[in-house]
Write a structure and sequence with these properties.
CTAG/Pcc1, tRNA processing
């Protein structure tokens, strides 16, 4: 059996500040990839950016993983927009 090359995708998502990027990373990082042997994920924060790197065994998994990640980012960003800074002042 030959080794199949891994397919890599890196996505940079800008946030308003490093704190919001870190919150997004912490929220998304809680959920492991469903196919751990076929998808490797690394999340980091670089300034205001959340940086996600994926290595997948197939192009199809790269697409599915990227779509799922972007859906999670959308939800986190909308939640931060709705409850972010103002909610911290209420506590």
């Amino acid at each position: 059996m030959t080794d199949t090359p891994w397919h890599t995708v890196t996505i940079r998502v800008p946030f308003a500040n490093p704190k919001h990027a870190t919150i997004a990373m912490q929220v998304i990082d809680v959920d492991p990839e469903l196919q751990r042997e076929a998808v490797k994920r690394t999340l980091t924060v670089d300034g205001n950016d959340l940086v996600a790197s994926f290595a997948t065994s197939t192009v199809r998994l790269a697409r599915l993983t990227t779509n799922g990640f972007l859906e999670n980012v959308d939800l986190v960003a909308r939640t931060i927009g709705e409850f972010g800074e103002n909610s911290e002042r209420d506590f």
